[in-house]
């Protein structure tokens, strides 16, 4: 249920009514106030103020100010007069309902008219902006066309001036040519007369000789032209040897016998493994720059293995693997150390990891794959898992069938397997 606000104060003049409404701690916004010609409502939940005014007011110019815990209304009267009271006395519920509905309908109609007016105004502004833009574009187009016309006229004038200069120059050149032609006409006529006089009464012998000489001249000219054509031909090419250089290959096998795709994949994997270094290890803070290189650590582990320091070699390989876990030789060498230290399960794990990284199988990693199979097979045999060990030795023999040592060891394992089967 709303709480009706009964406390309010008001005063009036002939033209306006000033109403003050306390808020009682509530917070009001313009959305909480509704005012029409004869209906005033303030709804601030849970408070409600509603009044049917004594006479109509100008709701367009009337104002409401919110501040200091009050709402101050300034209501301008439509007709100057003094009111007997702020609200209409003896207003029943039906009349109140009728006035309320009429006020809401008028407010809706007014809002709709304002919306339509704003829409029309917006369209007019758009139309005006479009017309202004079109006028500007037309003016710009006209300015560009005027500039083009001026340039065209300028170029036409320059071309006409150039043509006139050419005509004048041709006239000045033709004058001395005419004089020279008149001077040369007379000696030419005299020469022609002399020639006609000489050839007027020819002899038969001379005519025949002349015909033969002309034929000879014609023949000599054709031979001379052929000689000229032969002389224009380029000289023959000098004899020389052409060297053919073949692209060097990493693998020793011939290209027709090799598996190019597997070889390229292996080289790519090795290059990626060389570039990959995990530099986020705390152990690297105390190491020198060369000690952060997995290849340097591998060489150091190899030297320790050669001197019999297998634990030191394992530590070197461990750090190298932490720096770069994609190099198969690190696991292969560490497997050899574990075999010496009798860490057979670790030797099997490292050999298996090395075989996993030694893919695809190519001639470049044959030796490493043989070692991995042999070391894993040795670890299996020392664990008395002879069947698994024999499988590794046979795999090594498939890779390197000419290795006699592996063949002998495989034969020994077969005898051991046969002996255990007979004893069982």
What does this protein look like?
The protein has 424 residues and is an alpha+beta fold. Among the domains are: 87 residues, Immunoglobulin-like, CATH 2.60.40; 75 residues; 127 residues, Serine Threonine Protein Phosphatase 5, Tetratricopeptide repeat (Alpha Horseshoe). Helices cover 60% and strands 11% of the residues. The chain is built from ten helices and eight strands. The chain is flat, with a radius of gyration of 58 Å. The relative contact order is 0.04. Its main location: other. One of its GO terms (biological process) is outer dynein arm assembly. Keywords: Cell projection, Coiled coil, Cytoplasm, Neurogenesis, Nucleus, Repeat, TPR repeat. It is found in: Cell projection, Neuron projection; Dynein axonemal particle; Nucleus.
* N→C terminal distance: 100 Å
Mean pLDDT, nearest integer? 79
Helical content (DSSP H or I, runs of 4+): 55-70%
Give the spatial strand order of the biggest sheet.
1-6-5-4
What's the number of helices? 10
Secondary-structure element order, N to C = EEEEEEEEHHHHHHHHHH
Multimer state: single chain
Q: What low-confidence regions span 5 or more consecutive residues with pLDDT below 50?
A: 201-221
Domain CS: 3-87
Region (Disordered): 170-201
TPR repeats: 370-403
GO molecular function: nuclear estrogen receptor binding
